[in-house]
């Protein structure tokens, strides 16, 4: 059975729950290649976000790769790579 | 000569009001906020009443980025810090970065946040514990978050002295002002109204198990049977007199004039309790005589033995029924480390308006030689007020606040 | 108090309960030998956790003189505080029974209070997390004392017969420095003549492991526990949790001299500042810690050149070690490069609120013995950390004045200056 893909919409939901939204940021906008930094998410917010994704999908993200993921696209690709390998 | 420490801003987060004036109007009117616990189902517990804050929606006051990482008491404290600076007419960003500190008291940290993470840990496993747990529950969180929110880089601290802590924090803030920091925001906001907090509080043996809100928390009454817990507190902007004068502070509520703290010997040691020493120490520190004190805001434990000790200490220092005594916390319940800062706020408002708020619901016991202000507020020309706060294990703190006479502000 | 007399707080008694040995003697031997007390966690099965190493203290409550009643009602952190306070009191040679009780105060630092007790009790009253409405009938009678850690201060006050001001200072990982700064103020302002002060923490518990796992702050070097804490080393990858306490007797210099007390050091300067930046993060420039150091040196009336040794926070996280290295350079200038800096966390781990006081104990013992303790496990210098970190081996040298610093969650940055009132120009 093929694994479901992790999508930008899913990421938006997790980000909102895990870390809220910075004032002045439109999370529903075209954010796929905007850096998390510019979106107002620092390391703690991303750790909480990643932790929720890991729990929801039963995966364990590579720690160094997680730190290297600087945009929603990079994080989504990382999650999907893990899902495909799982 | 050490500088005087003035209070130039107040914020209140009380079950009876979320603004200073709303709280004060309710307090003078004797309006109680004690009622059945609504935040969780308390029906299976022996105590079922609380002083809850209603009408505080954190998302209306704070950015959504802060909500997942904060306990309710931190959300209240952060909003309170905004109100306190606004009340003082201060924009912290306009002061040099190391000129403002933040010193709060804590009772049990973000206990509800901790409860939820402990539950995640034990029901689902360590991977379900939040990345924010490392600080959201701990005792230092309110000082840290307030510092970040307002860019305060001055000396900051946190004290834990159970319910006496609110006064200890303000005293520590005064120390920093005396050492040269122009401004410190201080006080405490507490909230642990959750099942885990409730069960922990029950073990103190001091919670009232009555169901009638009018008969549950009755300090200095023959029917005293413990207290009702509440949530909230107050934050105060403390400022050196010179700094307040120089910036032309719009309001000066009064001065933190005297303070002392003591610790009781262990029960059964045969030694006397030490509350009297704390009161006398605070008066001496303020350089005032007992006759100068116009009112006492009592700790008001509503545990007969503790009421007796407090009543005797007050009677010994001031003489039998020689000073008006009140406990407006009968309207809010006991707010743990938030209680004493809220009493300080009430004391400053009493100084301002020349009126002592009442203690509600009680019929004063004849066993105590106290002049309790009951039923209605009492008009009185006040210059100095004493606030007493006590913590579990025998912690006693006492603070004298004093009115400040100011020349008419220059026209601006 | 006589007008004009300046009261100077000095340390005249010390007690330590640390991983690797209970008591000051064992503690100092471990440090100067450069041995490590970090190991795989033995208190419970750590295998579900990312980080499974810690520095555990081997406290035998009964041997340490606690009564069964004391052991039952006190969380482990309170036990540490009481046992260690008794050692400090005995060491001071001060007859506490002969002191006016209301002139003796207590200040106890603790970052996380009775975490261990709370963790265990939550598990019980929630039936292993199953009950949202936890069951009060299963609660231990002293649960309130776990909830509110000022119980640590009252326990110490009762143990030493103090009836003056008592409180707990809880500023995260700077608690152990801040508690001593607080106590020094009580002496200086005349609120107390003697203060029993220090700090304690006993955080090695599943909830603590889980919360530091979640932010990847603790090291995952589970295959080599003895060499897991690597401050300033290029291979460092997080701190190792520790536990313990250090307590001191503080009094006024004149009184101490009058009774012929052994004076370890004067608490010559202390300051704390906040970074107002992030609850867990540090800016790399170390500005606020540098400011705290500058103010503490001013208070001590010492110049950077007077500092003989820096006892670093040195937690072994990437960001911390870089941050404080910058802070030392910013505050001490060129002298930072000439001053030995070491982190005893390399040997005894990071006991959160307690460590600041334990590091003060190490600092005053360095002054007493004229020996600088080393930074263990430092084999691969990090180009970002380019000071003299005293790798591996203790160093004999004259130590008259020490700077010790701490950095805590919540943004607290503290600095304390300890100086020999006889030998230095203070």
From TrEMBL, chain A:
> Ranges for the Carrier domain?
5-83
The UniProt entry, under Pfam families, shows:
PP-binding (PF00550)
Give UniProt keywords alphabetically. Answer: Phosphopantetheine, Phosphoprotein
Signal peptide residues on this chain, from the entry's feature table: none
User: Any idea what this protein is called?
Assistant: Act minimal PKS acyl carrier protein
Name its species. Thermomonospora echinospora
Automatic annotation (TrEMBL), chain B:
Q: What keywords appear on the UniProt entry?
A: Acyltransferase, Transferase
Which superkingdom heads the taxonomic lineage of this protein's source?
A: Bacteria
For this UniProt entry, the molecular function terms from Gene Ontology, in alphabetical order, are: 3-oxoacyl-[acyl-carrier-protein] synthase activity
Q: Does the keyword Lyase apply?
A: no
One Pfam family name is: Ketoacyl-synt_C
Boundaries of each Ketosynthase family 3 (KS3) domain copy? 2-403
Query: Is Acyltransferase there in the keyword field?
Result: yes
What the entry lists under SMART domains is as follows: PKS_KS
Entry's Gene Ontology BP terms: fatty acid biosynthetic process
The family line of this record is: Belongs to the thiolase-like superfamily. Beta-ketoacyl-ACP synthases family.
Q: What is this protein called?
A: Act minimal PKS chain-length factor (CLF/KS beta)
Which species is this record about? Thermomonospora echinospora
TrEMBL record, chain C:
Domain named Ketosynthase family 3 (KS3): residues:
6-420
Q: Which organism was this protein described from?
A: Thermomonospora echinospora
Look up keyword Zinc and say if it applies. Answer: no
User: Which molecular-function annotations from GO does this UniProt entry contain?
Assistant: 3-oxoacyl-[acyl-carrier-protein] synthase activity
State the family named in the UniProt similarity comment for this chain.
Belongs to the thiolase-like superfamily. Beta-ketoacyl-ACP synthases family.
Q: What is this protein called?
A: Act minimal PKS ketosynthase (KS/KS alpha)
InterPro entries for the chain: Beta-ketoacyl_synthase, Ketoacyl_synth_AS, Ketoacyl_synth_C, Ketoacyl_synth_N, PKS_Beta-ketoAc_synthase_dom, Thiolase-like
Per UniProt, the keywords (alphabetical) are:
Acyltransferase, Transferase
